[in-house]
Write a structure and sequence with these properties.
- It contains 17 helices and no strands.
- By secondary structure, it is mainly α.
- It has one domain: MFS general substrate transporter like domains (Growth Hormone, Chain: A, Up-down Bundle).
- It is globular and about 55 Å long.
- The protein starts with 12 loop residues before the first helix and ends in a 5-residue tail after the last helix.
- InterPro entries: Lfuc_symporter_FucP, MFS, MFS_dom, MFS_trans_sf, MFS_TsgA-like.
């Protein structure tokens, strides 16, 4: 008789909590980058399209570190991978000190790149790590649950950035001193977390994606040679997932990069208030992730993904009209519907990849480079009209919709 799989096992609970906290950490840094985007426009006097190079530095690191992080994880294990990610994260934060002293946009981009290499390593490791902490049939739920705390970090980031960096009238609102002080604190916190994690005992785990013996494998061991990436047909869902993730993060990068600009240019908010609304949009993402995790108990993940992608196509059309509050509310709701996309695409992509799971994880994370390329294109349009720039993400959501709609034919075992 088949029994309903548990969310996780008791022996993994402490590790699950700790690894979930990593999602929160990179959520803070990711959205702080969007605050820095606007602050650099004001302080370093750069255009919207050039400020989008902040996102290129962050997301470009994911492309560079995707495969190396996966190889490191496969050679040395999940714990070592997490420690390497935290160390790079901390070093990047401390590099903000000389960057602020030099008032150099290029130096800031280097610091952000190193920090993001740490984030990319953590993300490459954390997703399959979370997936390994229980039954594969509940991996979608675990990853979406943990990703919800990425949303919590996403809320905290803009609040911190708006108060300490964008707040008008404070002593360092027009310079880079507050940026330097903030990242010194971040670097110190991450260093302490790395030290604590080094003492944490991680129970032995058997990645259920590497050796499957559940319903996904028709109650038999998966023949690893049949699901190699090189076979093509059996890994078509993974290939489409990697492409979809690139477009997914492209939409995220562009939407977030110019959210504060939209609030300032279209709604006439101060930068600080626009930053607080950006934080509210992160709350919408948290609600969406918890709602999505719950709905996946009744709705197939790929069906929910396609539905949410279609909803965001509608939201983007409304945002692009620049209708004031109706368009701004639609902008907030983009994050609600975006909420489940990254973790769901990731989880669907690595299903039944067997011994290729870690390699597949690395390649899907490399798709995050889309978040570095797309904001620049949106920035070229936003230099003239930031609302019109929101037509571009529609392309991305069409790709996501197609992936969700076609998934049953791509991976028949997992539906």
């Amino acid at each position: 008789m088949s029994t309903k799989p548990n969310f996780t096992e008791r022996k993994y609970l402490v590790v699950l909590i700790f690894v979930t906290s990593l999602f929160l950490m990179w959520g803070v840094s990711m959205t702080l980058g969007d605050v820095l985007n606007r602050h650099f426009q004001n302080v370093l006097h750069i255009t919207k399209s050039r400020s989008a190079l902040v996102q290129f530095s962050i997301f470009g690191a994911y492309f560079v570190m995707g495969i190396p992080a996966g190889m490191f994880m496969k050679r040395f294990g999940y714990k070592s991978g997490v420690l390497m990610g935290l160390i790079l994260y901390s070093i990047g934060a401390f590099l903000f000190i000389p960057a602020a002293n030099a008032e150099s946009f290029t130096f800031f981009r280097i610091a952000l790149f190193v920090l993001a290499c740490g984030m990319a390593t953590l993300e490459t490791v954390a997703h399959p790590f979370i997936a390994s902490l229980g039954d594969q049939r509940t991996s979608d739920q675990r990853i979406n649950f943990s990703q919800a705390f990425n949303g919590v970090g996403g809320v905290i980031g803009p609040v911190i950035g708006s108060y300490f960096i964008l707040k008008a009238g404070q002593e360092h609102s027009n310079d880079l001193v507050s940026v330097k002080h903030l990242y010194i604190i971040i670097g110190a916190v991450i260093a302490v977390v790395a030290l604590c994690f080094s003492f944490l005992k991680v129970p032995p785990v058997t990645d259920p994606h590497a050796v499957s013996d559940d319903s996904y494998a028709n109650d038999s061991l998966v023949n690893v040679t049949q699901i190699k990436v090189s076979t093509g047909k059996r890994s078509s869902h993974f290939i489409f997932a990697a492409i979809t993730q690139l477009f997914n993060v492209a939409a995220q990068g562009g939407t977030w990069a110019f959210f504060i600009n939209y609030g300032h240019d279209i709604m006439h908010f101060s930068d600080e208030n626009a930053g607080y609304y950006f934080s509210l949009s992160m709350v919408m993402m948290i609600v969406g992730r918890f709602a999505g995790t719950y709905l996946m108990r009744f709705i197939k993940p790929y069906k929910l993904l396609a539905t949410f992608a279609f909803c965001n196509i509608i939201m983007c059309v409304i945002v692009a009209q620049g209708f004031g509050w109706p368009s701004f509310v639609a902008l907030l709701f983009i994050n609600f519907f975006f909420s489940i996309m990254f973790p769901t695409i990731f989880s669907l992509g690595i299903k039944d990849m067997g011994a290729d799971t870690q390699f597949a994880s690395s390649l899907i994370v490399m798709g995050v480079v889309g978040g570095g390329l797309f904001p620049y294109l949106m920035g070229l349009i936003a230099n003239h009209n930031v609302a019109t720039a929101y037509y571009l993400p529609i392309i991305c959501y069409l790709v996501i919709f197609a992936f969700g709609f076609m998934y049953p034919r791509l991976n028949k075992k997992a539906v």
